[in-house]
Amino acid sequence: QIETYFFKTPETAEVEPELEIQQDWDVILKRYQGKFILLDVRQLEMPLPMTTILEELDKLPVVNALYVYHKRIPVYPLPEVAERGFEYRVKEINDGEVHLLIYRP
Fold first, then answer.
1. HSE-up (13 A, CA, CB side) for residue 12
2. pLDDT tens track for 53-69
3. Cβ distance 72 to 66 under 8 Å?
4. Which residues contact 30 (CB under 8 A, 6 or more apart)?
5. In a designed cystine with 68, which of 50, 62, 63, 100 is the match (CB 3.0 to 4.6 A)?
6. Residues 68 and 100 sit within 8 Å (Cβ to Cβ)
7. DSSP string, 27-76
8. Would the pTM of this model clear 0.85, i.e. be above it?
């Protein structure tokens, strides 16, 4: 079993503002209330969390949002989510627990 961890350093911390990770989380959450497709990828080994998310996005109905339970912020694959025409928000709950909302704008 291989686990990959990314630690924040002064150099990498500058990458985060581009993510707009928690901006308007509550607004987006309310917009899709009752219209979530829930996905828990916390127990999956790399690279299965992101491949599973991308597979779910391929079949996500327009009116729904994908609510993902993850262990950490998947910083590097998120640009592919955006390239597919989705927006996302990330909320860090605590160390080892992150929630993602992925939806069409």
1. 6
2. 999 999 999 999 999 99
3. no
4. none
5. 100
6. yes
7. HHHHHTTT-EEEEE-TTPPTTHHHHHHHHHHHT--TT-EEEEEESS--TT
8. no
